[in-house]
Amino acid sequence: MDADVGRWTETTLDALSLAVVTLEPLRDQGGAIIDFVYVWANQAACVYNGMSRNEMVGLRLLDVFPGLVTTGTFQQYVEVMETGNGVLLENFIYGNELRGNEPLRYDVRLARGGGGLVVSWQDVTDRFLAVRDLTRNAKTDSLTDLTSREEGQAVLERALRGAREAQGLAVAYLDLDGFKRINDTHGHDVGDSLLITTAQRIRAAVRDDDVVIRLGGDEIVVVLHGSESIDTALSVCEKIRKVVAEPFPLADDRLFYTSLSIGLTLATPTDTVRSILQRADVAMYRAKSVGGNRIEIA
Nearest 5°: CA angle at 83, between 77 and 87? Predict the structure, then answer.
């Protein structure tokens, strides 16, 4: 009966896409585990390792995966074997396996059973990339690749907390002059291209720790960290204004010109996200009301 159950179990495991192996600990004279030996592998594990079952059985684990020691993973194998406490290694990377430029990732489960260690693993690279892309899309604007409005709110809240700790903060509210006319006259493709190029130029003009946020349409906010004086923030905004005013080449080799209206303000200890954005917004509209292509300070 036991043999029948064993054969049924092996047949079932062979049918799984999940790779499964059983390992037997190899101990030194003091009883410490120094390696594991393969005693069984299902079909998926054999395919993964490029060996038949007969070729795998008897091999040492560290001969097949020597990198497990340097990453500390082998010690986790040992601890599961000694304590009986199972472990799930999520999004685990084995060696240098790549799919395109992306490393392959696996969910690896370690459990003690039958006097040995049962190891199973499954390729979860597609799941990992999908989750990463969803997270990234939630944090970045899909057109310009700037920080999204939702993520920008959280960034600004954190920045205001830092400003209260005397780190200094300024906020610039940017709006492209005449953007609606550009869209209406030249079409949305030109408008989108203009926004993308503008975003690239702004990011190139700011400092590494500054954050550029697209609120929507042609409205962009720049969070200027470490701005303890208005002069520091003003010099960055002037750089932004000048670089955006440079001509934009269109697909038909024509040159296109636009400019920015910029409202700039320093954070105060009592500022909220709403209050500092409102103040910068008012200053931006003041710049626009006198012709644009300028910076107004609130």
Answer: 50
Whether 253 maps to a domain, the answer reads yes
Task: Report in angstroms the alpha-carbon separations of 9 from 14, 16, 146, 172, 267.
Answer: 9, 11, 53, 65, 66
CB under 8 Å to 19, separation ≥6 — which residues? 41, 42, 44, 45, 47, 48, 120, 121, 122
Q: What percent of the chain has pLDDT over 90?
A: 56
Query: What CATH number is given to the structural domain containing 196?
Result: 3.30.70.270
CA distance 281 to 286: 9
3-state secondary structure 179-200: HHHHHHHHCHHHHHHHHHHHHH
Are 79 and 155 within one domain? no
Tokens of 83: 């304590």
SS3 286: helix
What is the residue whose two structure tokens read 């103040």?
279
* Residues spanned by the domain of 75: 2-127
CB-side neighbour CA atoms (13 Å) of 137: 7
**DSSP letters for 77-100:** HHHHHHH---EEEEEE--TT-EET
Cβ-contact 171, 193 below 8 angstroms: no
Q: Over the stretch 186-213, which tens digit does the pLDDT of each residue have?
A: 888 888 888 999 999 999 999 988 999 9
Question: pLDDT at residue 180 above 70?
Answer: yes
What pLDDT does residue 4 have?
41
Do 102 and 168 belong together in one domain? no
Task: Tell me the per-residue pLDDT of 32-57, one tens digit each, with 9 for 90 and over.
Answer: 999 999 999 999 999 999 999 999 99
Closest CA to 86 of 112, 68, 61, 113: 112
The total of structural domains in the chain comes to 2
Instruction: Judge whether residue 166 has pLDDT over 60.
Output: no
